[in-house]
Design goal:
This protein is an all-alpha fold and 170 residues long. It is 78% helix and 0% strand. The structure holds fe (iii) ion (2 copies) and magnesium ion (MG).
Length: 170
Amino acid sequence: MGAHGIETAGVDVQKLITILNEALSEEWLAYYQYWIGARLMEGPMRSEIEPELLLHATQELNHAVLVVGRIIQLGGTPVTHPADWFKLSKCEYEAPLDPYVEAVLKQNLNGERCAIKRYKDLADFTNGKDHTTHQMATTILGEELEHEQDIEDWINDIKRMKEDMKKLRA
Ligand code: FE
Ligand code: FE
Ligand code: MG
């Protein structure tokens, strides 16, 4: 984006670039958390949940593509070293030390809730000012909301399955 485009963004561009680099770091960590969790997970509904977790991973990667493109358009430098992901991310990376499907889902749910806050805040920050970043933020926010819903649904299904099994044993 040219100098005029950056000027007309209408927000504190340096602050915006910092926020976008935080978001970029979060997306990479979210990508890896989903990806490695999908490979390690075991338990009920594995054959349905594993491909969906891998799809979510790919979608997080696509978010990184959108965010990095906007940083470059704004004249910023995207975070260049993975070690900085941990310094910049405001969302916690949760390693899937317990591979049970419910544990992995809960970790990913925490990640989604953090991502929802990230893009809600970014949408608020740019609302009515930087329309391009605002549109990107709301697009990504919509996908993070879908991710949260998917994971909540599975957690509920597993809970119900456990309750049914308890009833059978009683
Ligand atoms: Fe994402
Ligand atoms: Fe997500
Ligand atoms: Mg999904």
